Amino acid sequence: MFNVEDIRKDFPILARKVNGKPLIYLDNAATSQTPQQVIDAIVDYYANSNANIHRGVHKLSQEATDLYEAARKKIQTHFNAQHAHEIIFTSGTTHGINLIANGFSSLLKQGDEIIVSALEHHSNIVPWQMLCERTGATFKVIPMNAEGELVRSAFDALLSENTKLVFVNHISNALGTINPISYFIEKAHAVGAAVLIDGAQSAPHIKPDVQALDVDFYVTSAHKICGPTGVGMLYGKEEWLNKLPPYQGGGEMIAEVTFEKTTYADLPHKFEAGTPNICGGIAFGAALDYMNAIGFDTIAAYENELLNYATTLLLQIEGLKIYGTSSQKTSVISFNLEGIHPYDVGTILDKLGIAVRTGHHCAQPIMDYFKIPGTVRASFAFYNTKAEVDALVEGIKKAKMMLS
Amino acid sequence: MSIEDIQNEIIDEFSMFEDWEERYQYMIDLGKDLPLIDETYKTDTNIIKGCQSKVWVHAEMNADKIEFTADSDAIITKGIIAILIRVFSNQHPKAIIDANTDFIDQIGLKEHLSPTRANGLVSMVKQLKMYAIAYQTQLN
Question: What pLDDT is stored for residue A177 in this prediction?
């Protein structure tokens, strides 16, 4: 039985005060908070098992290796990858995207095309622009409509036999729209293109099955899913990962080195040069254990309830406009008060102990589409409460009164 | 009045406020009353880009004093600009170069000069000083 008050006891930070007020943390789409179970895993690793992995003959090194590889298994099981070696540890989503973009630079040629969506985060646009500059491939964009949804028919029209890679986020960080990725994957595969899904925003809310989706690459970050910062994962189908060249050179990723030639290690080590974030990987596994113990269906149902509750109340505030009004949305509300800069609203909310994000959310093309400098974004997690939503609503009313 | 006298005057005014709300309401009102910058000066070259709110600054030399006008698209940022203009405008370049901004801390607005705010104010203070250095060089 889901009890939010019990859940909140797992998160020490939720008990602290900000500006003399109880913290109301509504910036979960930027980073999630960390439960004691994950903090314990981090402390336990450094207190009991800290050693470098894979090469040591000694007991500690074996323990650390076992813990790290067990975490990889947990991630494999969670995302339902066919093989554990299809899970590559990264420093986060951006690293995963760059790894793929770099890998494709040896596969693309002049005349090839990459399709990305208009809902992308900056980190998703820049590596592909760089890739196109390097290879002479061209870059096409799936447009969005006024609800903040990608236009399927426009995507269909962009696809051709020249399309080599399609790149879409599962959920938009700025608007919360859940994109129809199954549709994109099926259509892209029909013309022989690979698909990379950015799961940074979806992994906290949805448990994706990479085999059922038949997706070629999927990337995400641990810190959005109650894990630590600086670690994430890239899933790639074995055949694709074997096709791509290594990203970085260094230790761990080689099989044999002479001055004449180096042969690369097998998957996943080919893509994991140097000593990895061992503790981070283990804590990532602990975070998935924590979330799975609650259950993703339970989490999604509760967050949806919060979203509906908040949307109804916010829309009652005169002059408040919500951006991103798709019926397929996660628990993110991007909004503005008429005639008031989002920065001002965020500043007053901060004074009230309410943490929201303001600005363009690294998604300037979306802000340009709506012709706004940015939005205020409140994003809810399963440890938020309706009472906190009420406090947000009161806070916005106060900000409006002070700023009008 | 010297820069220091003006700063002390502002510190006195702010000491009368009992809580953050009164301080912020005062700043918001200052922002609303900030004399409008001539639209022709709101150019890309005069813009200071913070990540979130935009700040425009224009400087002009009158006799041996610098006159600043400025604007922002966010009202709280404008309020702080109004305070900075009151302190630094119509002062000799040398006095602007030598002045510090510790009074911001003393009136309880330190957080707005933190780099994480990304509101353009840190850059604005730097820009005011750059103008002062440039005009001082001309005077020498």
Answer: 94
Looking at the 3D structure of chain B, how many domains does it have?
1
Same fold, A4-30+296-403 and A39-293: no
Residue B33, number of CB atoms within 10 A of its CB: 10
Domain A4-30+296-403 has CATH 1.10.10.10: no
Identity of the residue numbered A67? L
Residue B116: its pLDDT value, please?
A: 66
Q: Which two tokens stand for residue B137?
A: 């060089």
- Give the pair of three-digit tokens for residue A340: 């008031």
Provide the domain limits for residue B97.
3-139
B80, B109 contact by CB (below 8 A): yes
Asked whether the predicted pLDDT for residue A402 surpasses 90, the reply is yes
Nearest to A283 by CA among A37, A10, A13: A37
pLDDT score at A224: 97
Neighbours of A302 (CB within 10 A): 20
Q: Which of B53, B72, B78, B121 to mutate to test the interface with A (most CBs of A within 10 A)?
A: B53
CA distance A259 to chain B (A): 47
Mean pLDDT of chain A: 94
- Whether residue A313 contacts residue A393, with contact meaning beta carbons closer than 8 Å, is answered with yes
Class of domain A39-293: alpha beta
Residue type, A119: L
Pick out chain B residues at pLDDT < 50.
none
CATH code of the domain containing B115: 3.90.1010.10
With an 8 Å Cβ cutoff, are B21 and A402 in contact? yes
State pLDDT tens for residues A124-168: 788 888 999 999 999 999 999 999 999 999 999 999 999 999 999
Q: Can you tell me the distance from the alpha carbon of A12 to that of B92, in angstroms, rounded to the nearest whole number? A: 53
Contact state of B52 with A342 under an 8 Å Cβ cutoff = yes
- Taking residue A23's Cβ as centre, other Cβ atoms within 10 Å add up to 17
A216 phi-psi bin (left φ>0, alpha ψ -120 to 50, beta other):
alpha
